[in-house]
Amino acid sequence: MTARLIDGKAVAATLRAEVAEKVRAAGFTPGLAVVLVGEDPASSVYVRTKDRAAREAGIDARTIRLPADTSRTDLLGVIQALNDDAAIDGILVQLPLPNGIDAQAVIEAIDPAKDVDGFHPVNVGHLANGRPTLVPCTPLGVMKLLRVTGIETSGARAVVLGRSAIVGRPMAALLLTADATVTIAHSRTRDLPAQCRGADIVIAAVGRPEMVSGDWIKPGATVIDVGINRLPDGRLVGDVAFESCREVAGAITPVPGGVGPMTVACLLENTLTAALRRR
Ligand code: NDP
């Protein structure tokens, strides 16, 4: 059996077009502020991608670049000004922040109604209670891929590999809200392959190149690869050994072109959602 390929690039393009259409119909221009502190090259690329995608969708995107030695007080001042700015509907602080700035304090300073990354404790709490408001973009994108592909989550056994606040935990909460029976696995989990073999849906978000191999996968299961890893030879691979899993799975996401494009598309959707709620 060769798995069906889940084309995240195509699904993301459709979602972006839908957001653009709704922005046109909204009668106002949603505003998104992306705050970048320091010069981390990967972060700069992500911020440029988000800025361009937002503009293409008709969102007024502003990137606020601050030097790496910005003090916590100054950064919190910038966040407060954006909270107070009526033209801004969404605020995103690109992580990681330079050493010495407590990311959690910065996240908690963002108005929860403008928290388009869904990382503020208020939004995390709503998600944990099964009443999602603004939801982290990557797991939200995964849920959309499952839905569009026609993967049944209700009653399904799902294993989420990874328990980060950005991906693993919100991913598990969304799957639970969608009536899956969810296992969260991490670096202390015993016998990961056995955990995965019992799963109808495996979501890999560990940051370990090609860790999940085909013999971990139940025939016909859905495999979603969140991982983005750059190998020494320059190749970009996921957390899933694509070729071996593809032989066994029923459906699988590629890297690149799977979850990654959905993250950006969902940021645009979250910005629109925040704008429609606020205005
Ligand atoms: P983190 O490093 O924050 O978390 C990794 C998680 O994986 C941790 O919970 C860790 O366990 C677990 N883990 C690490 N090694 C193992 C192992 N050998 N066995 C089992 N569990 C393990 O990473 P993120 O959640 O931020 O990101 C995960 C991956 O997703 C990365 O490749 C990242 O680049 C990618 N990513 C992709 C995005 C996209 O848009 N497609 C967006 C965000 C991330 P423990 O908690 O015990 O340490």
Task: Outline the structure in words.
By secondary structure, the protein is an alpha/beta fold. The chain folds into two domains: 28-111, Leucine Dehydrogenase, chain A, domain 1 (Rossmann fold); 137-260, 3-Layer(aba) Sandwich (Rossmann fold). It has helices spanning 8-26, 41-56, 72-84, 103-109, 121-128, 137-149, 168-177, 192-197, 242-246, 259-278, and strands spanning 4-5, 31-37, 60-66, 90-93, 157-161, 181-185, 201-204, 222-225, 229-230, 236-237, 251-252. Strands 1-11-8-7-5-6 form a six-stranded parallel sheet. Helix 7 (168-177) links the parallel strand 5 (157-161) and strand 6. Helix 1 runs parallel beside helix 10 and helix 6 (137-149) packs across helix 7 (168-177). NADPH dihydro-nicotinamide-adenine-dinucleotide phosphate (NDP) binds next to helix 10.
